[in-house]
Amino acid sequence: MTATPIDPTATPAWASLASHLEALASQGVDLRSWFAADPSRAACLTFEAGDLRVDLSKNLVLAETLALLTGLAEQVGLAARVEAMFTGEHINATEDRAVLHTALRRPPDGPELIVDGQNVSADVAAELDKFLGFAARVRGGSLTGVTGKPFTTVVNIGIGGSDLGPAMVYQALAEYRGPIRARFVSNIDPSDISSAVADLDPETTLFIVASKTFGTLETLTNARLARSWLLEMLGARGVVTSAQSAADAVARHFVAVSTARDKVAEFGIDPVNAFGFWDWVGGRYSVDSAIGTVLAVTLGPELFRQFLDGFAVIDTHFRSTPFARNVPVLMGLINVWYVNFWDAHTHAVLPYSQHLARFPAYLQQLTMESNGKSVRWDGSAVTTATGEVFWGEPGTNGQHAFYQLLHQGTELVPADFIAFANPQAPLADGGQDVHELLLANFIAQTSALAFGKTAAEVRLEGTAEALVPARVFTGNRPSTAIMAPALTPGVLGQLIALYEHITFVEGAVWGIDSFDQWGVELGKVLAGQVTPALAGSPEAFAQLDASARAMVEYYRANRRR
Ligand code: G6Q
């Protein structure tokens, strides 16, 4: 869809939202009085999507706000854009590609999806069977290392979209893992791979090289380092003694996930052990493709399918629920409300689940690589602010750190709180269910942010007058509370799909291509120019700016060999 995007700021809904905000400001935005005036507010502003219960009532919105926001979605053509994505139109305009991560988790009994002459549904099913079958054989011990020992560790080598999703999910679903453990290597910092393999047994280690392009500096460098480590270690044990036995060892201990099968073969990986996906799956949207092979091995095929089913539940909700009850649509629009009308620059994601510690980092890539753009999908400049900074840490840890700013700072930071009714680890401290301590904090924080504490209330506590201002909480600090029964594979799939579609909604309103990432290119190219300068090339050195040259000089003067 390369048609000129509709300028959201030129829609009647945008003007109405601006007037609405003025009216709210003159009446006073006050969650305390809104809750007091409307006893049904919490119920009316709580929505369900699959297993997710999403309470929007502590946001700075009235029913009228939501109606205006959904009107905005209609006026920018969101419904058509959603259909365009699901049906495979080339909505990734700058790369002229379809955007079909939703096809990776379509129910197998659904209608065929043919896009650009490709039978997408059949290809997805075949590749899924292939990598799940591989995972089953690794888990069952019928696929072994070169000395016949079953694999005990799988090392996923990938970066960005080929790392963050699998690493986050592996941690999130710790309770569901089988005996095979995983390690994740991503950084070009050599300490990453060296510490990942330091205590591993080469005979029982399987490497998955995960790279959509199979051309990424970090991943290919780490893959070569891993290959050298394997051959050296097996050589020292007398297992690798010739070029042929080295090739056999690589073929047995390395598999790949990529869209570039030719490059995989060049690396020496047996094409039988190469799992594919397609250019219509963006890296940051690929955890549910073969990029999840490490998860299929560690969690097992059945749980991986449950994970995919979770995504599908939210896909169906997103595609078919009217905007007024459509959770990703409402959450995406409320984010637009804060960014564009309240001048919010950041958005906190605060999981009250230690297992979701990497979820904010995962969302940073999903949201910021998707919507951190200044031009629209037709190349014209955006007409309003886009792409808030997503960040976060698990609760309750954050409460003892940055929550000060959330409660009393000058920035408005909308926050998503996430919690589960059932704990991963049901422990009691004496008679106290510890999970209830966690949940009490989760609930209390949303109330403290929303309702605050007035000067009168502070005084009533006997606070000395000079300290009253410091102890006042203004309240009216917005949050969304997401709850689910438990952090299962299916629920995690639902949560990821929820944020994928929130991101989509924001991008659609702003008219940007949420599926390209040209902004990561320049630094990569310049790094290629700096590398020879670090190694001593005077020609490369001369090309650098004065600041860069000084850093190279510092490095060369201080590097010990
Ligand atoms: C994601 C980005 C990016 C990508 C990495 C790894 O949407 O495109 O994070 O995933 O650069 O790329 P490869 O998988 O091609 O190695």
What does this structure look like?
- With 561 residues, the protein is α/β, with parallel strands linked by helices.
- It has 23 helices and 15 strands.
- The strands form four sheets. A six-stranded mixed sheet has the order 1-2-15-12-10-11, sandwiched between helices. A five-stranded parallel sheet has the order 6-5-7-8-9, sandwiched between helices.
- Helix 11 links the parallel strand 8 (254-258) and strand 9 (274-276).
- Helix 7 (164-172) runs antiparallel to helix 15 (359-371), helix 14 packs across helix 20 (489-510) and helix 15 (359-371) runs parallel beside helix 20 (489-510).
- It is globular, with a radius of gyration of 26 Å.
- Residues 159-162, 211-213, 216, 219, 282-284, 369, 517 line the site of glucose-6-phosphate.
Q: What's the arrangement of secondary structure elements?
A:
Blueprint: H1 12-27, H2 31-37, H3 41-44, E1 46-49, E2 52-55, H4 63-75, H5 78-87, E3 114-115, E4 118-119, H6 120-140, E5 153-157, H7 164-172, E6 181-185, H8 190-197, E7 205-210, H9 217-236, H10 243-253, E8 254-258, H11 261-267, E9 274-276, H12 293-299, H13 301-320, H14 327-341, E10 346-351, H15 359-371, E11 389-391, H16 403-408, E12 415-420, E13 428-429, E14 432-433, H17 434-451, H18 455-460, H19 468-471, E15 479-484, H20 489-510, H21 521-535, H22 538-542, H23 546-558
Helix pairs in contact: 1-4, 4-14, 6-12, 7-15, 9-10, 12-13, 13-20, 14-20, 15-20
The protein binds glucose-6-phosphate.
